[in-house]
Amino acid sequence: MRRKASLILLALAVFFAALSPLLRWYAFPRLAKIPAHQYQDMVLEAKDATLLDYGTMRAKKVPKVSIVQTLRGNVEASEKIEKTEGRDVVVWDGLSYVQGPDGKMVSKIPERYIFDAHTQEPVNATGEMVDGDPVERQGIEFKWPFLTEKRDYEYFDAQARITAPIHYQGTQNFRGVEVYYFEQTIPWTKVPFPETMPVAGITPESVAKTGTTRWYSTVRKFWIEPLTGAPVYGEEIHKEELRGGTLLGGRDKVTAFAGHVKMREDYIEHTVDLVKSNRTLVLLLTSYLPWGFLALGLLLLSLSLYLEARSRHPGDPAPAETTQAEPVSA
């Protein structure tokens, strides 16, 4: 009976020991993915910013500029792309809407971002665009991969339509969460005017005829929770200028926007709470369950060996053997 029990325990030990690496290295990469229907929004603010007054074409100080960023999962589009790509794909339709202190629109830039649901690598498919311009992204945007590493990544800049390194700068603690800090600098770069201009009747084409160009520079900062790859906080030191042409009345350049853009406090709290919750789920698949199954397998193996040893050395003494007397002949 003990030997039978030890064999059952041995089989269970082998099962859980084999399940441990399978869960971590096989199941997790397939189970961890971004849902196709995900929706999220975020509000950022630049206080004491500089903003161009298009009425006078002069830069002025304003108390606040707000940027509302939304990302909406397009399930129908992702399903179409998945049929041709043969993998799980997420399509995010994003919008960056900038408004001044009076609530009026300063700019709005839509974009479509297509990426692999598991690795967050970009998927170059039909429909990928920024403000109506077709693009082929190289590098990540918005979301870092699960199990982010301490290294530099390639990050896509939607304003300049270019990919540039974003550098790992160290590990920090952000409101009780261990995060990796990344920073990217985009030097002054000539960029297109938004398709939707803040003044009625003015179009990018009409501005181009004046010879005036738009330039942009930023220092982008992200604090990333490494297990989920989710940004818990972000900032940008953002600058835009109009340069040359007859639109500026003989001036070389004028500041269109300059400000230190930061996440609004209520969105920071919501993001940190959400990341902490998702972090627990990732830990369950990458650490808690694999190590738990391995420990359980070792425990079952020990019990199996113990019962096997007991079956070979029973505690009760063996009964004494009786010797049969030999017959005596006459």
Q: Radius of gyration in whole Å, from Cα?
A: 32 Å
- Report the uncertain regions: none
Mean pLDDT: 90
Largest sheet: 12 strands, antiparallel
Number of strands: 12
Q: Specify the helix fraction band.
A: 25-40%
What is the N-to-C order of secondary-structure elements (H for helix, E for strand)? Answer: HEEHEEEEEEEHEEEH
Strand content: 35-45%
Shape, per Cα inertia axes: elongated
Structural class: alpha+beta
Instruction: List the strand order in the largest sheet.
Output: 6-5-4-3-2-1-12-11-10-9-8-7
| Measured distance between first and last alpha carbons | 51 Å
- Count the domains: 1
Counted by DSSP, the helix tally is 4
Walkthrough of the structure:
A twelve-stranded antiparallel beta sheet has the order 6-5-4-3-2-1-12-11-10-9-8-7. 23% of the residues are buried. The protein starts with a helix and ends in an 18-residue tail after the last helix. The chain has helices at 2-31, 75-85, 204-209, 265-312; strands at 39-53, 58-73, 89-99, 105-116, 129-130, 133-134, 153-157, 162-174, 177-191, 213-225, 230-243, 253-263. The mean pLDDT is 90. The protein has one domain (32-263). The protein is 29% helix and 39% strand. The chain has four helices and twelve strands; from the N terminus they run H-E-E-H-E-E-E-E-E-E-E-H-E-E-E-H. It is an alpha+beta fold.
Secondary structure elements and pairings:
Blueprint: H1 2-31, E1 39-53, E2 58-73, H2 75-85, E3 89-99, E4 105-116, E5 129-130, E6 133-134, E7 153-157, E8 162-174, E9 177-191, H3 204-209, E10 213-225, E11 230-243, E12 253-263, H4 265-312
Antiparallel strand pairs: 1-2, 1-12, 2-3, 3-4, 4-5, 5-6, 7-8, 8-9, 9-10, 10-11, 11-12
Helix pairs in contact: 1-4
